[in-house]
From TrEMBL:
This is Sec-independent protein translocase subunit TatB. Gene3D superfamilies: 1.20.5.3310. It holds the Pfam family TatA_B_E. Residues 94-146 are annotated as: Disordered. GO terms for cellular component: membrane. It comes from Arachnia propionica. The keyword Transport applies. It is found in: Membrane.
């Protein structure tokens, strides 16, 4: 009911007996019950008064709906669903790209293992046959350079 299990309830009762004594405990428990009922009645009256003042379009008003986080989530429910759908689509597209990349890598490794030519070798061979100059190589690294 309040998130209290049996062990906690027994602990509260034992503390009540120790603090108030067995002769005062029934009076305190009756007062606590009256306070609890009064608070519950105040909350119910406030909720019914809100319903009456806001009109029939708010007849199904719940106090949880007045929480700002709940209100925002309720208003943007459709947008959140669209974002979740886009997220799922992107995740599936990413997975398909990973699958294609792994299959391409596997095919390239098989081609190299079987003695086939690699794309880099084919490009160099094509440049040599076309008479194009070789691409410039990077300058060697000089650790003493400024």
């Amino acid at each position: 009911m309040f998130g209290i299990d049996a062990a906690e309830l027994v602990l509260i009762l034992v503390l009540g007996v120790v603090l108030f004594g067995p002769e005062k405990l029934p009076a305190f428990s009756r007062k606590a019950a009256r306070v609890f009922v009064a608070v519950r009645d105040i909350a119910n009256n406030a909720q019914s008064q809100l319903r009456n003042e806001l009109g029939p379009e708010y007849a199904d008003l719940k106090l949880q709906d007045l929480n700002p986080r709940t209100f925002v989530a309720k208003q943007f429910k459709d947008e959140i669903a669209a974002i979740d759908e886009a997220r799922r689509d992107l995740a599936s597209a990413g997975q398909s790209i990973k699958d294609q990349a792994s299959s391409a890598t596997r095919a390239a490794k098989e081609s190299v293992a079987s003695g086939g030519s690699t794309p880099e070798r084919e490009v160099v061979a094509a440049e040599e046959t076309a008479g194009l100059p070789a691409p410039p190589r990077a300058a060697p690294f000089d650790p003493e350079a400024t």
